[in-house]
Fold these 4 entries.
Entry 1:
Amino acid sequence: MTESNIQNPLTLKLSWREKFAYGMGDFGSNLMLCIGTLYLLKFYTDILELPAFYGGVIFLVAKFFTAFTDMLTGVVIDSRRRIGPKGKFRPFIFYASVPVALVATAQFLDTGLGLTLKMALSMLLFMLFGLFYSLMNCSYGAMVPAITKNPHERAQLAAWRQGGATLGLLLCTVGFIPIQTLFLDNPSLGYLVAAMLFAICGLFCMWRCYSGVKERYVEIMPEGHKPGIARSFCAIFRNPPLLVLCIANLCTLAAFNIKLAIQVYYTQYVLQDIHLLSWMGFFSMGCILIGVLMVPAAVKRFGKKRVYLGGLLLWAAGDLLNYGWGSSSVSFVLFSCMAFFGTAFVNSLNWALVPDTVDYGEWKTGVRAEGSVYTGYTFSRKISAALAGFLPGIMLTQIGYIPNVVQSEATLVGLRQLIFIWPCGLAIIAAITMGLFYKLNEQRFVKIIAELNARKSAGAAPVDRPGTANAAGRRVKAISH
């Protein structure tokens, strides 16, 4: 059956149950990811007693490694020829989530080994986590074009995804430390128990996503097209909207992860109340959730690019206000809410814009490669995450951080700069990049989809440069439900 035999893909509406199931996927993946983003560096420095510099090196090496495993995932996805009833992407979500949960828990195990062995084991576990997480999460993200071609429904899925991610981050922010502190006599056991509980919950959420979503437009590469890591890089550089999005996302994800990694240090040593982290997380993540719920209506009225830029400006303003007047608990929470409210629009639209670049790439080259485009994009995110994990470790060493003691005035100033000035500067760079160079607006996207449908109806897909393989041999498997 071809796409022309089913309902117009640009008007197909998804049920709220399917959107909820898709959102559960990022809720579950963030339960397993954010315990590492938020607390693993502190576990390294305070429990394993690794120097902060060593912790940064572990993040840097492991994240660079997983950047390439993302590329490998794209190759594996696009190479699939025999697509069974489970679909092209869903099997990876189901099977890879098991080792992700196991390794996410094992990362918080204190083995009592020597310094060198502890660092080697920590790096190995982090790399394994990244490998399996790539298989699970890249498949989850790349699945959107197979679910729907309706741009408004894609924005809805992006909002549900970001809503799930926000709730996962909120639960990790609010719930992890209270569980960990139940074991005051054995803090290392507290980290392990908390990690295990979050990983188990994350696993079942991923399975709920697997069972609740449907792949309607499964497209298989033509026989002559051989996916590879080089093609994933080409997918970025031959796709201008994707390249701009990658550069902007490099800045925004680094800013967001630096903020998350440092906030536990900031609340403990600058505000002298580590339990404030839970309250801050509750209110600020609540603001993110409100922002996520506003995304579809805001996009419909103003367009994706304007909403994205507005979110970046709110984010930068919140960080600047916090740096100047965020010395008290109340002002810190208030201005953090403002900044995180801005991030809701940015992070939601990152996922809504990527499927649009998939269609742009097909329109320009004649070959549709969800896996290569998506993992080319996530490559930039992993490079960003590598830098975001490495820089706090380096900077903590540079500002003279010493675990579990009263910090010097210079160290406290350094923590304030790390959590506010660095993210603010990166958000401004992202705004300039998107504002000046991102050209794929809603009107142009509608024309691209119309031309793609016309090509498929004609049985061929011309391309814009000689020597590029066309999509005439591509098989499209449209599944009607």
Entry 2:
Amino acid sequence: MSGGLLIAGTTSDAGKSVVTAGICRWLSRKGVSVAPFKAQNMSLNSFVTREGAEIGRAQAMQAQAARVEPSALMNPVLLKPGSDRSSQVVLMGKPVGEMSARGYHGGRQQALLDTVVGCLEQLRGTYDAVICEGAGSPAEINLRRTDIVNMGIARAARFPVVVVGDIDRGGVFASFFGTVALLSPADQELVAGFLVNKFRGDVSLLEPGLDMLRDLTGRRTFGVLPFRHGLGIDEEDGLRVSLRGAVRESVVAAPVGEDVLRVAVCAVPLMSNFTDVDALAAEPGVVVRFVDRAEELVDADLVVVPGTRGTVRALEWLRERGLADALARRAAEGRPVLGICGGFQVLGERIEDDVESRAGTVDGLGLLPVRVRFHKDKTLARPVGSALGEHVEGYEIHHGVADVLGGEPFLDGCRVGAVWGTHWHGSLESDAFRRRFLTEVARAAGRRFVPAPDTGFAALREEQLDLLGDLIEEHADTDALLRLIETGAPSGLPFIAPGAPS
């Protein structure tokens, strides 16, 4: 086998990421050498590869689904929003500058297209199949001229396209038809068909609509994937706990001890890598919720201040909402607080930022003896160390460099009383360390909570990825998908003119 496929969507969050991961896991189980690819990703949830490149977390999880090591080739362009109008551009895993949306789409697209096509060709030369994920919708006609992630890359690689639609939102048939109808004839040639996602109920009731859709478009539906609670991979931009989770509060397995442990995560602006708390949500008896009001911290046993792309902005937000005062009261009372990356920085004494916010010197919350200076160069690393007597692995993504002036060492940060701070994302995925940390939190919070002795976070991730592979294998026409990957889109697919469904 040698080929590929582009998974597009009718909208953002239609299910492109999970379908791509599911196809990667299904092909990997068949013995096919497969790699994921997303030419351009916009996300504040990122990951550091072993070679020190920053890519979207979704692509890192898709690589895990494919059972291959993640690489910058799999996500050559990453956009990290800093405001509604500008983003940091990360090219081949390294930041190259801040750019407005108008500036980004204004003149660099041919060079970027050449880069992403080159990356895709390298992957095609290494793997039997490459499963590409689009972004948003391919029918965003205002952006088609500068598109490098949807039909732009499909046209360049001559990859067939399957469009995913979320039927749980409603309007999926109109979305499928409208997506195809808004494309040019050359783009429509590559759209092979559709995949329905998140269907609840009896599939036979859907079949008449699928038959009509085929009559209207000349394109088939490759499967109907059922709705599954708590099934997903690391989010790109949704505020959701990925494992055993829901939007605001995680679903909790029965605790091992007498008490549950309540974790409140401050939903700071430009929150990044909030997937750090997934490992907490995976623990039986741990309740994780995202909060934005001071009163929501009152009953929390642990408050997490997560990473953020806007450290100074997050600091202002915490003060405006009274959360800063609530955190100070917790620290004075010896009640647990954990700051991670940007959240660690705001807990310190002072921030000097002439890079990210250009705000100059700003007072932090003063809960940790730390002073932070922002550097133009970004730290991208995969550190290994120990804390609380246990082995810990993590990854670092930050411009701020911390000068720790006191306290008890804690990873690369420090601890004072029940307040901890570190730059290490992913540290809570180290099972033994997480259990020791939660034991310390429970003791400080006065809870009779006992961490489960056998919760393995990596095993839970593998279980999720296997479930995604099962979803594809059991509910999609895998023979037809294999033919698409091997031979491309069928010839003779009809052109659908906008507004003319016949």
Entry 3:
Amino acid sequence: MNISIILAAGEGTRMKSKLPKVLHKVCGKPILQYVIDASKGANVEKNVVVVGYGGDITKEYFKEEPIIFKTQPIGEGIPYGTGYAVMQAIDHIDDNSTITILYGDTPLITESTINKLINYHNKSGFQATVLTAIFEEPTGYGRIIREDSGNILKIVEQKDASEEEKKIKEINSGIYCFDGKLLKYALSKIDNNNAQNEYYITDVIGILKEEGHRVGAYIIEDSTEIHGVNSRVQLSFSEKIMKDRINERHMENGVTIIDPSNTYIEDTVKIGRDTIIYPGVSLEGSTEIGEDCIIRNNSRIVNSIISSNVIIESSTIEDSQVGENTHIGPFAHLRPNSNIGENVKIGNFVEVKNSVIKDNTKAGHLAYIGDADVGHDVNIGCGVIFVNYNGKEKFRTTVGDNSFIGSNSNLVAPVKVEARGYVAAGSTIVEEVPEGALSIARAAQVNKIGWVEKKDLIKDK
């Protein structure tokens, strides 16, 4: 059985945040989520997460995940250290299991690397395996000292390394595989007799080696995967690497991204092939984009479903759906729960909220459509306002198929315009418009000849 122990108890003081470090996000997902997903993707059957600072918040966030939480005590006199953190999960270490030690602040680790590490450990017959990396500048890291056979002889920390050992470029990532029974045994043997008064997981390696067990090392292919997040600067580094990975994945799947360095796509977004993404676009949350779409500059789409052959120009779409062959923008705003049909035009500075707009309807410019049910083949003129709020409650407006709403009209909800109803420009509609009727709801024009001269409003120049 494969079991992971994910250490996520650190406070992350350098983050200078009220939020637990592992809940800070990279491309829309908490950094701990990436580690959990990578572990599950590597066919690890049981994932144990050790939390400490902000543990209740972390547990609440991941309450739907099939993971086990263990809490590391916090307070004065607690010894701490990586070894102490692993001890908190000892009840979940099975004798016949392979245990992988991971860190909750390494969002760049991949399921491929975890899977390769576990397979290497098991197939090579090691009792412990260290994931290592080659760094051109290894200062600050523990060095890997190998035997002639290639197995690990020991791990030497920077402060304890000789000048010759400091030249070694292979470093300890802190990620390990252990045989479950031997890990439990070695944890019972380590002590905190050191300057920091902490229990270190590296001591487990030393104990197993001294007792004649084989300790191997697997060199990671991409050393950026072991990059940890302890500050906002390091968070930014992880964000950049993850953003590049996500953009490359979409491009490899047939999406054109004009300028990947200026395009933000979160990990959970899906995009169909032959869609073109222009610079400045932000795609977030559970957004799904169909095939053959064009998403032009400076558009933001959040938790929305965009069907195929849609053009979106410099617009914001939130928690909404857009049908095929529809054109949105420029500068349109679809607020939550907007359901836009096929071949619809939502144009310049049009705002839609909590509304259904059916096929072939057009709202070209400068309109507000809120809490409405609009039929198909409707024309909504410039400056039309769906007046949905009386200061206390929201009300709905219904506009039937093939209707025409003239420019600068107000539809005061609750109100209904029946099919083929026409509203004259400048009208304020407060009563039902019958099917096929023309409704004119504006004051009669009165021209008072000579009024300006009588009021002496024109001055001689």
Entry 4:
Amino acid sequence: MNLSLYQKLALSIMVIFGIICALVYSWSKQLELTSQHHGEQNLHLQLAEHLVQDNPLIKEGVYDYKALENLFHTLMLLGPAFEFYFVDETGKILTYSAKPGKVKRSHINLDPLKQLIINPKSAPVYGDDPRNTQGKKIFSVAPVYNQKSLQGYLYVIIGGEAYDTSLNTIKNNDQLWLTALWLGAALVCLLIAMLILLRFFTNPIQRLARDVSKIEAANYSITDTKLSNYSTQKSNEVHSLGRSIQAMITRIDEQFKALEQSDKQRKELLTHLSHDLRTPLASLQGFLEVLNQSGAQLSAKEQREYLHVSLNNCDQLKQLIEQIFELAHLENGEISIHKETFNLGELIYDCIAKFSLTAEKKGLNLTVKPAICDFPVVADIAKLERVLSNLIDNAIRHTPKGGSIAVHVKHIDKAQLFVQVSDTGVGIKHDELNAIFNPHYQASNSNNEGRQQGGLGLAICKGLLKLMDSEINVQSELGKGTMFSFNLPQKIKV
């Protein structure tokens, strides 16, 4: 049988409620009966003693059992709630007033009688009911003497058979049934109120279960799934759990989308790389085929030109393949960083010298600001040289003849330096600034100067700087130039 959480809790509460009601009712009835017996026994405690003292027939010790039976009959007519018995010192019932067959016992246990005589405050004390072999009744008792010799006991049952019959008749009265009905109705209303409260408290759990089922049915996508709203009260654990689960599922959904986007980008990257590799490879193959088939018909100058172009294509292929491997190692976390302290100015001037000839041919002005930048920094010198070389190479390719390129070093604070590589080139559109660091992305106004570029340089720069706990930023204005900047620590952090 499949039951919901609310149904299980409701069923459990109903069972527990019923058991508790039964126990409380039984305990209250027992307490009521005990209190009633205590009061009645204390009220009639000296009844038997007064009868012994006031009745000459008993007081003088002359026991006419027939006369005593008539006396008992008269007393029972006056007080139907009482039954009178005379027992001897062994507990044998000698006389009483009752129809034949009504009295079931011939003897009674005298211990309760003696207990009440010795200690009247021990009430309620229960003695044997002569009319019921298993029954017990409260009683009043008094010893009967004849010249100081114990003859027996006057044993008076309080609340006898006639009293019980009358009481049972009253209990069957409509008014008592009406009272019991009202009591039952009150208990049912209380149970309904408890079930409503239980429904109120478990409803958020059911909503949460429905939300999770919806998300599971939607393959854990929350794009088209409407979720419930939960309050922000920290004291409500269920609502807090609902918010946490929604936040977790939102995070999972974001990660799924990021993975899908990453997979899409990888496919696009493979497509672009295939094209980038095919172009220089096809050019290389074409020139080599010409040299192979028509080598004797070509002049020495044409052969040198074809070989030069082929070597350039080989160099482009080599650089592109190296960039692909470097980016793959960065993404897989396979590149380690070896930090050391070195002079940043020396590294910058080394990179400037490497590109000085290219810049001179293009009529570009390469400068370092300040000219003397004797700044010790803590970084991986090889990785930083790779970053600076990529940024300067990009600046040269995108800066027209007569422009300028500057590497500027600034202080951020006592422990940080700010490195800027700026140019007066073509610039980058504002809506493309966030995309230029993606692998293989090339801005719409990029200038490759006849060379095939893989578009991986800035992605590699970003990855290398991230390994050195730095972040690259870009500012650009179309037609006026671009500036890349990143920070470097001047000393090892303690």
